[in-house]
Amino acid sequence: MDSSKERIDQTEDGMCRLLRARTPNTGKQGLQYAVGISAETVGAKGINLQIVSIPPGVKAKTHMHSEHETAIYALSGVSQVWFGPRLEHHQVVSPGDFFYIPAGVPHQPYNDSAEPAVVLIARTDPNEQESVVLLPELDTVHP
């Protein structure tokens, strides 16, 4: 059988969906999330896609997704992120950059610029917030 014609997993009712981003809400991490594709919106089984905005001067709560990978694409503005077991690593994420966070890696994104940073996030957890594990003991590592 031609592998390009294999059956593709579908939403429960087998229909494709067009969605507009929902009104942003504040997630457990303290950032604004406009969720598009998720288990909650379309019955997704293995992916979550959302737009996250980090206002100027805002730092997220330190967190991780213990069983799920995260892929980020920076749309506008510049954000930064501390990451690693003790937040010992640092990266600047600029428009057009891709950034990968493996499952189980603590991270703390922030925006110390004068303009909002907007990123597109895909995660292997289809649920919007269930895999978020807050790590308050690391929130003050980089005040």
Weakly predicted, low-confidence segments? 1-10
Question: Termini, distance in Å?
Answer: 57 Å
Number of strands: 11
Strand order of the largest sheet: 1-2-3-10-5-8
Q: Helix/strand/pairing class, anyone? A: mainly beta
Q: What is the gyration radius calculated from CA atoms?
A: 16 Å
Order of helices and strands: EEHEEEEEEEEE
Q: Roughly how much helix do the residues carry, as a percent range?
A: under 10%
Mean pLDDT: 89
User: Main sheet, how many strands, which sense, barrel?
Assistant: 6 strands, antiparallel
Globally, the shape reads: globular
Tell me the strand percentage band: 35-45%
Please tally the helical runs, counting DSSP H or I stretches of 4 or more residues. Answer: 1
Strands, helices and their partners?
Blueprint: E1 25-26, E2 32-37, H1 39-42, E3 48-54, E4 63-65, E5 70-76, E6 79-83, E7 89-93, E8 98-101, E9 107-110, E10 117-123, E11 132-134
Antiparallel strand pairs: 1-2, 2-3, 3-10, 4-11, 5-8, 5-10, 6-7, 6-9
List keywords for this structure.
disordered N terminus; three-stranded antiparallel beta sheet; 143 residues; 1 helix
Could you characterize what this model shows?
The chain has 143 residues and is mainly beta. The protein is 3% helix and 37% strand. The protein contains one helix and eleven strands, in the order ββαβββββββββ. The protein has a six-stranded antiparallel beta sheet. A three-stranded antiparallel beta sheet has the order 7-6-9, with no helix packed on it. β6 and β7 form a beta hairpin. The longest helix has 4 residues, at 39-42. It is globular. Mean pLDDT is 89; it is low at 1-10.
